[in-house]
Known about the structure:
Its EC number is 5.3.1.12. Pathway: Carbohydrate metabolism; pentose and glucuronate interconversion. This protein is of the alpha/beta class. It has 20 helices and 11 strands. The chain is about 50% helix and about 5% strand.
Amino acid sequence: MGLLDEDRLFPLEGRARDLARALYDGIRDLPIVSPHGHTNPRWFAEDQPFPDPAQLFVTPDHYVFRMLCSQGIALTDLGVPRVDGGATETDGRTIWRLFARHYHLLRGTPSRLWLDHSFQHVFGIDRRLSADTADWYYDHIADCLSRPEFRPRALFDRFNIEVIATTEPATDDLRWHRMIRESGWNGRVVTAYRPDGVVDPEMAGFADNVALLGQQTGFDTASWGGYLDAHRARRAFFKDHGATSSDHGHATARTEDLPQADAAALFGKALRGHCTPDEADAFRGQMLTEMARMSLEDGLVLQIHPGARRNHSDPVMAAHGRDKGFDIPGRTDYVAALRPLLNAVGMRPDLTVILFTLDETSYSRELAPLAGVYPCLRLGPPWWFHDSPEGMMRFRQMATETAGFYNTVGFNDDTRAFCSIPARHDVARRVDCSFLATLVATGRLHEEEASELAHDLTYGLAKKAYKL
């Protein structure tokens, strides 16, 4: 008996369930298009075995270790490294046993679905993880990881991934992407331009990062014009390594369209470290508009991921650094915040701006009406805390009536956890088929239209939106 119900996430009502199952059967084996994520390109460049089960499933996965942390388990006991190099648990089996003893904490969460899917479909496991089965699990997965068919490139092919996008900082040398390209392997791994470190005055090392940007490009990044030209050069470098998008993770969705003299003065204050918090936010907002204009020049899709109140715990930030599970969603305004950018370029159908949110209250009130009228706007799928069966269904229910389906961009998994990629796409496919089946069963959609939409939501929209 497997870990997963074959009809999971389908409607309970008979006709709708049958429709959902039929729709899903028509798209379940389509290739995976993963247009935005955070897998490590080094995996595919070097194609070395993953170290051990704990390093694959526990230590790097903030979805997992934040839940265990909430129940009083120290991050050091889960192998999460300290910024000062201090002692953390390094024995994979010890970490795995601790994880297995607390696996029940993930009941009812999307992480449980993703993990069980990985255990069953990637590693062929049909028994539940618990303290009693922990060592058997560890030995079985470790044995699998020692085999060639479980190396990154083999799993890439087995997962039926057509293309995957990683995300690198603007100053990254992209050595691993270059190695992939020169290796002759036919797997398609592209990068995405993430300039946060050189557009956010509140990020540690901002001025040094901007100076490095100048060194890499040969432009004078102490001047506003040279700084913008340096971005253009780096974007071209990223495009040469396969990039079709840029990505911007700002605290707010604020945009600005200042006169260039005012923008230059604000940039000068940012370089000198003299910006107030409001001025820093204004500068980030100005750069979103500048990046949108650059997208009109070079064709990169602009992704905006706002609303995360990052590194909420000062003690965890001090001990373990950034991105350790303490990023918390916050209320986000889009209507007023995006108006400067949209007044500047919003009516351009040759520009694609993909909006994401951690604030579900904005779906029907702000995001769907905006995407339902501005030619440049598209809505990204439910993200992060809402990358879940209920979150995906709420998105479809709240956004579709106003934005329709074709102002959305399908699904992206946005993950560092490689083995969860097919699991996440499977959840999205099942939820979308369930939503479409309900529309058919309630007389709002023809069955043949639902079949076309299932294909588009699974495959076509992502390829089109991200120019893949």
